[in-house]
Amino acid sequence: MSVLSLSINPASLSHNFSLLQQRCLGTTIAGVVKANAYGLGFSTVVPVLYRCGCRTFFVNRLEEGKIVRRMAPESEIFILDALIDAEDIYEYKNNRLTPVFSTIESLNRYPDEENIAVRLDIGFNLAGINAFNEASLKQAVKGRKVTLLMAHLSCAECPDSPYNQKELRLFSRYAALFPDARKSLSASFGLLLGKEYWFDIIRAGAFLYGSKAFPQSQYVAGLTTKVGWIRWFDAGDSLGYNHTCVLKKRTLVASLLTGSGDGIVHKQGCYVDYKGIHLPVLASPSTNYLPVDVSRVADCIQVSDEVDLFNTTTYTPDDLASDAAMGVGADVLIRLNIF
What we know:
The chain has ten helices and 18 strands.
């Protein structure tokens, strides 16, 4: 059994969803719960959002959609990576899941499908139908009833990027071809770019779980582990594989009982939080251990003490993401592998 403890605050999740609704009146706020609800667990996140009135969800895979359907019976669930291989369209119909067509090939395999959702690639260049080949796209959707047209901004986290306006113009041009379809361009960071980016549905992922970029939002999750081993080392001693971490001074080192196998992102330059005190990570983790300099708390820290890898107040997922040079707090959460 893992000694890791993931704590989720349902009230904060509810608060964030309500905050998004108030900020974007007239626009549907959809819950993005891909990758096991950003690593926080379907069973924890989906029922809370459903009770808050969330009735639109996005996931990546068919199996994820089936799980969400059981927890959100009266909701619309879109599967982003649908029908990429030889999946049976009836799996979607039987579970009342809406496949999002992201390739022309899949559109051609299911020519009789009505009320379809289509994802365009307008510059993200990882998924979606190439919006720069207008002739092929128009031919693929000719005569089809498109009820949702969506795309993903490539640089929404960078509000000054010229790509945002460029991609908005391209998406708007296609949107005009489908006047009866709902439109969805923005995920969380896109809503900060202005109302012209909102359209009908905002796919809220990162901001649901707390973000410093979204004022008044609250961080939802904290992750705690335990001290497994403590020992003093002298200057010149090394830690871990291949002697890559050489200590520069006498140091009290604690091995925390967590590592890369749990999906944590800590490395040198990051911290953990021990009773409100930030302690520096000394090296990248092994599969099961994370070395930390605990010299500052040598007089009180003990084996089996709890240490926060991140929390909702003093060392948040955004703080960790910044120290790890890896994006935003949601990127920390979505990597978790502790269930």
